[in-house]
Amino acid sequence: MAAVANKKASSVIFKATAYIFCILLTVISLLPFVIMIINATRSTTQIQQHAISFVPSTFLKSNFDVLTGKSFDPFKGFLNSLIISTFSTICTVYFSTMTAYALTAYSWKLKKPFFTLIMCILMIPAQVTSIGFYQFMYKIGMTNNFLALILPAIASPTTVFFMRQYMIPSLPMEILQSARIDGAGEFRIFNQIVLPMMKPAMATQAIFAFVTSWNSLFLPQILLIDNDKHTLPIMVSQLNGDIYRTEFGAIYLGLLLTVLPVLVIYFLLSKHIIAGVALGGVKG
Questions:
Q1: Residue 124 maps to which CATH number?
Q2: Using CA atoms, how far apart are residues 66 and 50, in angstroms rounded to an integer?
């Protein structure tokens, strides 16, 4: 009886420690967002005097007026970011799933070398190829064009790898063979049979791809020249104030406007991230 009681006590202590640790991590993770939201309602003087505060202030409208007075158009930046992120996410998920399907469902001589090449490309940082990519876009007249940021999303090694690892154990080849025997074409098999089976993985990668594209700053900054085509991250990066004064309240508000859509999408679709990653990890 004593051993059972000790075992129960140790189990309770372990659970309590785990809950406390998780709560602590949650607080640490949410703290920067809380500070950003509160500082967006405070004045520059208040922020300079006390950088961290948990009491909202009344300067939200004045910060918004200062923000829009700095040639910051949140609605235009939001629309530009939404167009680029939405279409690049569609290209990433659809064509990466198609590539993973070709690496899983078909047998061809160069399949393994091709997958190895994709993994090698995965190791190359985007900054290494940025100069050559910009020169290529300039020569074909694609600079200052949203397509220069959307079309390259077709080739996403990370998404291809995830989709392939998810597809190997979860895609029944017997169903594909039955569809071929019934006379279904390859594109019909892929669109009507494979894609519905891949919904959890596609939802997970769609969220990651959207957030990555939305937060992208480096490539849009060197490719998009006109102010009318700037995305929200570019506009926020230009909020450095003038020589005499930096409006920190307006900067925090700009950051909040940039992060807010990502937070909304994450909270609405977070269950797909958890379910897709967990299911892919178990099956992989």
A1: 1.10.3720.10
A2: 21
Considering 61, 84, 99, which residue would you say is the last residue of a domain? 61
Spell out the per-residue pLDDT of the chain, length 284, in tens. Answer: 566 666 677 777 888 888 999 999 988 988 888 888 898 898 888 888 887 888 888 888 888 887 777 667 888 888 999 999 999 999 999 999 999 998 888 888 888 888 888 888 888 877 778 888 888 888 888 888 899 999 988 988 889 998 988 888 888 888 888 888 888 888 888 888 888 888 888 888 888 898 889 988 888 988 888 888 888 888 888 776 554 567 788 888 888 888 888 777 777 776 766 665 555 444 44
**Burial per residue of 127-151, b for 16 or more beta-carbon CB atoms within 10 angstroms, e otherwise:** eeeeeebbeebeeeebeeebebbbe
Provide the domain limits for residue 219. 63-283
Burial letters for 216-252: b for 16+ Cβ neighbours within 10 Å, e otherwise? Answer: beebbeebbeeeebbbbbbbbeebeeeeeeebbbbbb
Query: CB of 235 within 8 A of CB of 31?
Result: no
Q: Are residues 18 and 155 in the same domain?
A: no
User: Same domain for 143 and 33?
Assistant: no
What is the residue type of 150? I
Whether residue 70 is found in the same domain as residue 102: yes
Do 91 and 142 belong together in one domain?
A: yes
CB 72 within 8 A of CB 240: no
What is the pTM assigned to this prediction? Answer: 0.80
230 DSSP assignment: -
Q: For residue 116, give the amino acid letter.
A: T
List the structure tokens of 284: 């992989």
For residue 33, the tally of other CB atoms under 10 A from its CB is 13
Q: For residue 42, what is the DSSP state?
A: S
